[in-house]
Amino acid sequence: MNYELWILIVGSLVGVNCGITGCFLILRKLAMLADAISHTVLLGIVAAFLVSQSMNGFYMLIGAAAVGLLTAFFVQLLHSSGIQEDASIGVVFTFLFAVGVILITIFADNVHLDVDHALMGEITFVPWDLVKIGFLPEVPKAFLMLGTVFIINLIFILLFYKELKITTFDPQMAAAIGIPVLLIHYLLMGMVSVTTVASFDSVGAILVVAMLIAPGASAYLLTDKLSVMLVLSAVIGVFSAIIGYYAASWLDVSISGSMATVNGLIFFVVFLFAPRKGIISKKLSVNSTPHQS
User: Among positive and negative, which fits the CA dihedral 52, 57, 58, 64?
Assistant: First the structure.
């Protein structure tokens, strides 16, 4: 496959993976936790490198998943102690991200790890970072990681769809019928962490946050059904990745930044024109309602 096609495939996989996991964060009112995890996994990546002395993707996934779960645990701990959830997220997020930045500066200054790369990523390098497995042809490492994570995410959602749905909409009922609410929560946070780090190296934290939140938020305004929301979110993620790439090529700007911008524009359009929940649709509905004297 050619250079451009690999970038589109990798960007689309980021959109699908982040889109479907982000839906649950939106519904659980944990959107800002996505921002926190997408930054704190930097600490997990650095820690994995320091322990293994390798940039192998498997070690990165383990390190990121561990720190993602740690982030969720600390936020939950502070929140259950009486601190507001947004304040808990802010404290944990800034602390763990800052520790990651310090460790990079001290121990990994000469390695392919830096804060600018972590924030913005560089998807244009994806087609050149190839790996070969057995008799299969060489493929980009990012494609292999994101494809594997997509399969894991799909299996997880299909196996625990009922549990995820009930714990998301009615955690009290879920606990009453014996579903381990906290375990499902941490499994979901682990899924978010693994998804984040798989996308991290290619597109950076900014696009990961955009893909985790914007497609799910747009889909939320378009439907009230979870299964439809998951599909719509994935479609929006792919669409924004493709349009964002061509817009970046046309304007000669950052590809990740362009993809994130398209996500924002799609949300803005949906926010205004969604059939039932859009601002303009609501106003038209109110104006068309007959007034009784």
Answer: positive
Question: Looking at residue 193, what is its pLDDT?
Answer: 82
Please tell me the pTM assigned to this model.
Answer: 0.85
Domain of 140, in residue numbers: 3-288
Is 293 contained in some domain?
no
| 11 part of a folded domain | yes
What CATH code is carried by the domain that includes residue 66? 1.10.3470.10
Looking at residue 116, its pLDDT comes to: 53
pLDDT per residue over 166-207, tens digit each?
999 999 999 999 999 989 988 898 888 888 878 876 777 677
pLDDT in tens, 138-163: 888 888 889 999 999 999 999 999 99
Residue 10 in any domain: the answer is yes
